[in-house]
Amino acid sequence: MKTNFTQWFLHSSNESKNMYRTLMDRAVALITEQTTSTTHPFSGASHHEIEETVKEMLTIPSAGQKIEDVMEEIQNGIVRNSLWVSHPSAMAHLHCPPVLPSLAAEVIINALNQSMDSWDQSPSATYIEADLINFLTKQIGYLDHADGVFTSGGTQSNYMGLLLARNKACQTYFSINVHKEGLPVEASKLRILCSEHAHFSVQQSAAQLGLGMDAVVKVEVDDKQRLCLSDAKEKIERLREQGLLPFMVVATAGTTDFGSLDCIREIAKLTNEEQLWLHVDAAYGGALLFSHQYRYLVSDLCLADSITIDFHKLYYQSISCGAFFVKDRKDFQQIAYHADYLNSEEDQADGIINLVEKSVQTTKRFDALKLLMTFKLMGTDLLGELIDYTVNLARETALLLKEELSFKVLNDPEINVVLFRYLPLDHREDQAYVDEINLGIQRACYQSGELIMAKTKQNGNVYLKFTMLNPVNSISNMQVHIKRMKKAAEKIEKERGEIRYEYSIHH
Ligand SMILES: *Cc1c(COP(=O)(O)O)cnc(C)c1O
């Protein structure tokens, strides 16, 4: 059998280098072609159409196909029907347009294919991650004994926060090493407090950690959608009266729905007095550390025992990129495992660091390089300016919407989220009707491919949401979208009116 496989691997041969360049060039061409051909953030294709197109693509050949053919299929079947997150009118979720340094870093990350679990698999990358974590702990305001680790994102970071806090609580209250012995029966008494707007991964983590979702006690929010301190105090007291053991508060700096920031200083005072672990989920708001105008909103992050920060949100990194931080590195010992083949005791004696000791992953991506290249090429000043611009744009957009009689804005944006709903001039009180019109607006805009926004529910009512992360977006673009939404709403109302009219004739 004579097969030429060397061209498919990175290798010193010319055919390998040629193939690498060809594939890379084609991949880049596919993307640059898309930047010019997409006027909209989405093609508007229906889920049926997309499902069918993809199905057609999925005939898996036994012999490799021509590069041109495969690339064309990928362009037509995938790229063309992808959500173009770099378009300024894509503003549904906390889903950022990635900066180019991050994309270039991915090329290097992928080719080097370093795994961050043990030093021998990532000799320099290990130190890049460790030193970048060190730099970030300084930005947070943590002292020398702080530490952290890159994660796949906010969900994993929050999970780690709950994991360390749970293990420590079991040691403190029950003198049990959970990592070794498993959960004692009394663990069913453990309780975690967070606000109603905390991310669902808090409950999910509690479930996965054997505490159950019911171990998470939801604290009310105040009129600014922040965790209400007096309610937290009352709930802690009540739990203790019932013989339960509150051990942790999860505060949020930048809630997913409102962008609101819990008051960390006050909460930290409470958790100190009550001897509770404070985890701050700053998956979203953590980027404000580099803001020029709004850094003060996160100046108390350093009071937390542990912190979640996502870089694939307001730090403009491609997915996935996040980190988990602890105030005291000793807390990582709660989860350390010594595998003889990865992080042996001898390594430790030699002063070699193996990041697996701090991670819930084994094989792990070198995502730190993306953030490093972004900081190096763009500088932290520019990053801060981009963040400020987008926050200010969201605030200006909220003002524009407030000037409109037919819109109601639910929040005064602290960061980039604007929550609002269309209120038809007639039938404003008919909530079911208003909900239906708002769902209709969101769907019509998605189907036209012109404006991608999110829908959510607050107090049982449908609201629309802009998450405005893209610094390429502008207030004039937002003016166009407000007109577009009004037009869509009027069209839906007219159609509804005609249906009603016909109904009244025929009945
Ligand atoms: C996005 C988000 C998460 C989840 O993070 P992933 O990176 O999606 O896993 C958790 N908390 C908050 C506040 C978030 O905004």
TrEMBL record:
The keyword S-adenosyl-L-methionine does not apply. One of its GO terms (biological process) is carboxylic acid metabolic process. Belongs to the group II decarboxylase family. The modification N6-(pyridoxal phosphate)lysine is found at K313. This is 2,4-diaminobutyrate decarboxylase. Keywords: Coiled coil, Decarboxylase, Lyase, Pyridoxal phosphate. GO terms for cellular component: cytoplasm. Residues 475-502 form a coiled coil. Its cofactor is pyridoxal 5'-phosphate. Gene3D superfamilies: Aspartate Aminotransferase, domain 1, PLP-dependent transferases, Type I PLP-dependent aspartate aminotransferase-like (Major domain). PANTHER family: CYSTEINE SULFINIC ACID DECARBOXYLASE, GLUTAMATE DECARBOXYLASE-RELATED.
